[in-house]
UniProtKB/TrEMBL annotation:
It comes from Bogoriella caseilytica. It comes from the Bacteria. This is uroporphyrinogen-III C-methyltransferase. One of its GO terms (biological process) is methylation. GO terms for molecular function: uroporphyrin-III C-methyltransferase activity. PANTHER family: S-ADENOSYL-L-METHIONINE-DEPENDENT UROPORPHYRINOGEN III METHYLTRANSFERASE, CHLOROPLASTIC, SIROHEME SYNTHASE-RELATED.
Amino acid sequence: MSLGRVTLIGAGPGAADLMTVRGRDALATADVVLYDRLAPTDELRSWAPSAELFDVGKRPGHHRVRQESIHDMLISAAREGRHAVRLKGGDPFVFGRGCEEVAACREAGVPVTVVPGVTSAVAAPAAAGIPVTARGINRAFTVISAHDPLSEEEFAALVGLGGTIVILMGVGTLGHTVEGLRRHGLPEQTPVGIVESAYCEEQRVSLTQLDRVHAMAARTGVTSPAVMVIGEVVRLAAEHPATGEATSSGSAAVAQAVAGAASSAMNLGAAPAARPPARPGVRAP
């Protein structure tokens, strides 16, 4: 029997049509598909018509299938000469444990390839019309997981570097994260955006500022999956977030964001910039 293979596919941020063509092509030849909770699955049977389908998705506080068991399932299928696909939300190599699955396959001598996906770290802000970088405003963005509480060293580094902060898996530690950033000097009126269930029917966007985000999240019941964006680029959020428009009010919004970025860069303890204006169709404090 010839040896099969394993393909890791990044399914993108949630919408079926944001999966790559290469990913869909790989699914079409799959014999086994192990899929995650955040991957689009409504049409999975038609995408992989000959495959056995296994839900191995992890939920907060509950892992129905251990990571080591996922490795074993992929390797066993490949050793039977089958094409095993691991379908993961976002990109397999962005907080997706894809590197562990690749390492397990390589150690077992099983051919493995990776099909990258659109990461929610960039796509979720874009769903609200928020760019993670903008000329004259910032030249860097940092993506960090807050699944586990961030350390004081991490807070200091985030504030010291500047730019946009994109936080994934941070709903459960939101209060800790916000207080840590404030404690290390991030101005309290720094704009904040939270995008829940990006590109799904349940998508919701909330805009606020750093010192009000915890209260807003508690009041509106922010839930996972959610991406939090912190920085002056949030001022560029779309007028109607569901459309993914580029900016809220054209050059005026850009100018305000540039001014806010300049103020923060000169002195993190300086007088805060104006609070982000409320926008139609957006939950605000």
